[in-house]
Amino acid sequence: MTYQIQGEQGTWEVVIGMEVHAQVIAESKLFSGAAASFGAEPNSQVSLVDAAMPGMLPVLNEYCVEQAIRTGLGLNAKINKTSVFERKNYFYPDLPQGYQISQFLHPIVGKGEIEIDLPDGTTKTIGITRLHLEQDAGKSVHDQHPTKSYVDLNRSGCALMEIVSEPDIRSPDEATAYLSKLRMILRYLDTCDGNMEEGSMRADVNISVRKPGAGYGTRCEVKNVNSLKAVQQAIEYEAQRQVEIIEGGGKIDQETRLWDPAKGETRSMRSKEEAHDYRYFPDPDLLPLHLADSWIERVRETLPELPDQKKHRFMKDFGLSAYDANVLIAERARADYFEIVAKGRDGKMAANWVLNELLGALNKDGKSITDSVIAAGQLGALIDLISDNTISGKIAKDVFAEMYKSGKDPAEIVEEKGLKQVTDTGAIEKIVDEVIAENPDNVAAYRSGKDKLFGFFVGQVMKKSQGKANPNIINELLKKKLSL
Amino acid sequence: MSIDKNTVRKVASLARLEIDEAGLEKMTPKLNGILQWIEQLQALNTDNVEPLANVANIELKLRADALTDGNCADKVLANAPETTAGYFVVPKVVE
Question: Among candidates A454, A450, A474, which has minimal Cα distance to A464?
Fold first, then answer.
């Protein structure tokens, strides 16, 4: 399923690389002890280090380093035992230092890879070039005053991981699959919350086009692509724009462009051009970072089971389809919930109840599994009631609806509402006899070969028993009596 | 390696330094003098020498991830020419 752009002079291929900035989950900032949380009063989470007051010195946060190692290991990447912090120099009002402390020639994490899942069910491996640690900048607010901008430095100095992919991505679908998978891995690792609305995960997309098989074309970097939908649209737009320029005899300028979601287009950010001369040099305030093998190994031992491992285990141990397994592992909380429901029970049945009933109901209400009033143990207990024939699968759906409303235990609901399945053969036989007596015409028709009427009899018996008769016993008795 | 006046002008502008024509005339040979001196150092063969980050043989200090700072907006904003509602106020900068 290759993605191609049909130009006037043949087909074109798009080549995409992604740079993702992921805010590290930590209490405090990368180089200061001020809080790194979101949404506080302006400038209340700023130390004199973050405000770049003269004489202040950065001291590296050990836990942020550990989070970067953990992420590197989760991306199957090489951990560099020596890395170096450098200064990236540029001027902007929300960057009080006049430089960003980042890593350039010697990042903490080197080459790795991610396996992405595509809509057609296939997978593809996307290379990771590097991951490095750096400081975030502050935030400028432009819409509060006609001629002024307001600056809040709370975010200034928060730890970011910049994760750079190889130019291995070839379509908008692959780009969104990459971003979703990366987000999932970061959330499993608990190293970034992946919240794109709050800006704790931001993507820049490098896009170029070429004739299939040709060398790489000149790329443009598109910024402000802050949702999966924006990634999809920005790539479609930008690739088309580049094809039109080249086919019109023009050439692509390597430049930074801004995605405008309102207009659905990218536009040049000319002011950024000169600023691209960053004059990196090793930060004289910080020595090179050396990682002991023992530290890396300690972090490796804390790694959770990652999404792909979990997916394959669910398929193998519970007999789930790749599709069901993918939906269950999409969120770690969802996978954990399913495991409690499935433990010691039929895996497929557990998956059906979690996916179709519970997630179905939650989605309708715009809720996630962590909001569920039904605890995993309660859903498991409902399945037990079906398995031991206390209730039928049909009644179970009514019980589920009641559980979803009240959060009560299924056994309590069954008791209160008298929903217990009737397995007393004598009682069911009585109803079967009644139904046969009341429908002589259908009985005759059935006996003369209209097999399809069997379902009608089952339905009638079920109705008379208010849904409580055991379906297996109904079937058995009806077969016996109708064939007489 | 040597640099010309235009390079000096560009570097000055990147560093937000205001230097007039006369200043550039004076600065260019001075900077070239420094670059020549570095060039002399480059003549040494350092192929098998590890880069030296400090001479005291100390390791980078790390700190625990704990909240020990911040909550001092008044101090942070004290030198700002203009503030409002806890924000720094600067001339409009928008793309």
Answer: A474
